[in-house]
Design brief:
- The complex is a heterodimer.
- Chain A has helices at about 1-10, 15-35, 40-45, 55-80, 90-135, 140-155, 165-175, 205-220, 240-265, 270-285, 295-320, 325-335, 345-350, 350-380, 385-405, 410-425, 430-455, 465-495, and strands at about 180, 190.
- By secondary structure, chain A is an all-alpha fold.
- In chain A, strands 1-2 form a two-stranded antiparallel ribbon.
- Chain A has one domain (about 1-495).
- In chain A, helix 2 runs parallel beside helix 4 (about 55-80), helix 3 (about 40-45) packs antiparallel against helix 4 (about 55-80) and helix 8 runs antiparallel to helix 17 (about 430-455).
- By secondary structure, chain B is mainly alpha-helical.
- Chain B has seven helices and no strands.
- In chain B, helix 1 (about 5-20) runs antiparallel to helix 3 (about 40-60), helix 4 (about 75-90) packs antiparallel against helix 5 (about 95-110) and helix 5 runs antiparallel to helix 6.
- The N and C termini of chain B lie far apart (about 60 Å).
- The chains are: A mainly alpha, B mainly alpha.
- At the A-B interface, helix 7, helix 15, helix 16 and helix 17 of A face helix 1, helix 3, helix 4, helix 5 and helix 6 of B.
């Protein structure tokens, strides 16, 4: 424990890391306020810039961007009724009406304070829960890992905007993408079409850049001529004592909800903020104010979405299972920098892990200050014309895709996945399941192969392992639980 | 039939992948042991996908999704610039291609000040080139400009 505290505190004694966190927090807020960009696209674009950094600094930069961009989405949600990130969608319900009443400063104040408390709470939980989970995960063997990845994939049913079936199809497509290249055991080439640059498989980075950044560029092209109206913002102020009295319970509840939802594999900040908001409404004594400018509504959504960031880091770092699109990119960052995600990270690289957690904590404190004193300035950035912004995103995307392996093939892959991602989104398929499937694909196949070897080809023996069975049952319930409940209630009514 | 177009395309894709997987070489039992052949896993995935596509087709048939409007010219121009980017990169220079695509994107997305679009299209790739080349030490592909720069 002392080692963890000292590693986290060491962040304060590293001026270079502190500088990086500060710059990335500013960058994250800018990315968060720009409609369409968001934490995931921002992380995909930033990843190539971290290539030459020390692994801890690189992951700290990505994690900082994650927390600051998630918070910043609320600035435009409140001021121009356009959530900078999908996680801030619930903030518009009450943030914008409050801003229209001339209380934009109060709305932003509540959002900043709630986000900070939610974020810090989840990091503290992360610090406590991650090592405990790592101890359990340390005992996992291939059958448990196989079942866990199946559980992670089953949770894709509820991630992103598409329906459950569409998300699962996307996830399986992602897993299939992971089979491209030479098969690990036999070296038999699969789906390479004679291209030996694909021998080691598809690189994650260009696929991520394509799916998130370039597909978003094409989506945004539909809104190329949109002009946003900005509500006049007076000084941002801290919530009053009355506000605190009204929102402290909401913040506490939403922080817990957000952290818990973040921990669930493949769930993320967007789901957390929606549940945080609806729970705030359910428990409120002034429900009639919701949708018309309730500070509890803002606090409920914002505390939950930022709490989800810390929660989502738990499965990412402990189990190697990303909790969202952004954590999928952070996971890629860990792999690119030679840090092996999983329980071993907590024994082999414990200091690095806590430095990363410490960086996230510092980022939360920095964005509290920036949110309170510079929100007006950041809000203006959201008015940058799309005709200037998105061509820059294009340049960053293609150069970033090239940078990892100095290969033009990666650039073409990014562009192809950009177009594929665009058409997928056009037809209601979310791209996050494809990304998560690609990352988990290798784990699923390797652990299935190893399990089969372990049990001499008797696949059903996987079901005899208690933890593996638990994960598979959870996966089954996650996929079919609601249908089973419906069938039971229908049967009950009929009788 | 319109609601079944997307499930149909996805099903065709899955069948093609199964066919391609069936063409993969078989590995000798002494290497594979009790594990799977390299073709088994992709086939297994695509069979699950076909089941899911069947459910999707049924859902689309029961409650057809609303018709999607065709994208405006800006989107199609943006996609076309990717093809132009490929051509220019392979025949001229990576950075010329980026600058041209940025300029076309910017103007087609509504930037009327051509000098601003041109300025952004030149300065952004140049800055990124210097950053990646000088700081991150990444060599870019040979082309008209990079040949001149690298010598």
């Amino acid at each position: 424990m002392l080692e963890a505290v000292s590693a986290m505190a060491s962040v304060m004694g590293d001026p270079y890391l502190l500088g990086l966190i500060t710059v990335t927090t500013v960058l994250g807020i800018i990315i968060g306020v720009l409609p369409g960009l968001g934490a995931t696209t921002g992380a995909a674009l930033l990843l190539p810039f971290t290539l030459t950094m020390d692994p801890v600094h690189a992951i700290a930069v990505l994690a900082t961007l994650y927390v600051s961009a998630t918070f910043a989405g609320s600035i435009t949600a409140i001021l121009i009724n356009t959530p900078g990130t999908s996680a801030a969608a619930a903030t518009t319900f009450d943030g914008f009406p409050l801003a229209q009443r001339g209380e934009a400063g109060r709305a932003l104040g509540v959002a900043v304070v709630s986000s900070t408390i939610g974020g810090i709470f989840s990091i503290l939980v992360l610090c406590l829960a991650a090592p405990m989970l790592a101890k359990v995960a340390y005992e996992f063997r291939p059958p448990e890992y196989f079942a866990l990845t199946i559980f992670g994939l089953s949770m894709l049913a509820s991630v992103g905007a598409g329906g459950a079936v569409k998300n699962l199809i996307g996830g399986i497509f992602g897993v299939w993408l992971a089979t491209i290249g030479a098969e690990r055991v036999t070296s038999i080439e699969r789906f390479m079409f004679g291209n030996y640059e694909l021998y080691e498989g598809l690189s994650f980075v260009p696929v991520m850049i394509g799916l998130f950044a370039i597909s978003e560029l094409l989506v945004q092209s539909k809104h190329a001529h949109r002009v946003a109206d900005m509500v006049t913002l007076k000084a941002v102020k801290l919530p009053s004592r009355e506000d605190y009295k009204r929102i402290w319970k909401t913040i506490a509840r939403s922080s817990g909800i957000g952290t818990f939802i973040g921990i669930l594999p493949a769930e993320g900040a967007t789901v957390a903020s929606m549940i945080g908001y609806s729970e705030a409404r359910r428990w409120s004594k002034k429900r009639e104010e919701f949708g018309k400018g309730s500070v509890e509504g803002i606090a409920g959504a914002e505390a939950a979405n930022n709490a989800a960031t810390g929660g989502a880091m738990v499965p990412t770092m402990v189990l190697g299972i990303p909790g969202s699109g952004t954590t999928a990119i952070i996971l890629v960052g860990l792999m690119v920098h030679g840090l092996r995600p999983g329980p071993y990270l907590f024994t082999e690289q414990v200091e690095s892990v806590y430095q990363i957690f410490g960086s996230m904590l510092v980022a939360n404190i920095i964005f509290l200050g920036m949110g309170l004193y510079a929100a007006k300035l950041f809000a203006r950035i959201s008015l940058i014309p799309t005709a200037i912004l998105w061509p820059i995103v294009f340049a960053l995307s293609v150069i970033g895709a090239y940078a990892l392996s100095a290969s033009l093939l990666d650039v073409w892959i990014a562009l192809i996945f950009g177009v594929v991602g665009f058409f997928a989104r056009r037809h209601g398929f979310s791209v996050a399941p494809i990304a998560v499937g690609l990352i988990l694909g290798h784990m699923v196949e390797v652990n299935l192969q190893n399990s089969l070897k372990m049990f001499d080809g008797a696949w059903w023996m996987i079901l005899t392992q208690p933890l593996a069975l638990l994960f598979l049952v959870l996966a089954f319930l996650g996929l079919f639980g609601s249908q089973i409940v419906k069938l039971i209630t229908r049967g009950g009514r009929a009788s | 039939m319109r609601p079944l177009i997307i499930p149909g395309i996805l099903a065709a894709f899955s069948v093609v992948i199964i066919y391609l997987a069936m063409q993969l070489k078989l590995s000798p039992p002494m290497i594979v042991g009790h594990s799977m052949q390299p073709r088994s896993f992709p086939i297994f995935l695509m069979v699950i996908n076909l089941i899911l596509i069947g459910i999707l087709a049924w859902e689309c048939w029961r409650a057809p999704p609303p018709a999607i409007e065709l994208e405006g010219i800006t989107t199609w121009v943006s996609i076309a610039t990717f093809a132009a980017f490929y051509f220019l990169t392979t025949h001229a220079d990576f950075f010329i291609a980026i600058a041209v695509v940025m300029f076309v994107l910017s103007t087609s997305w509504g930037e009327r000040r051509l000098h601003v679009a041109a300025l952004i299209s030149v300065t952004v790739p140049l800055t990124l080139f210097l950053l990646f080349d000088e700081v991150l030490k990444i060599r870019f592909p040979r082309g008209l400009i990079t040949n001149w720069y690298y010598g």
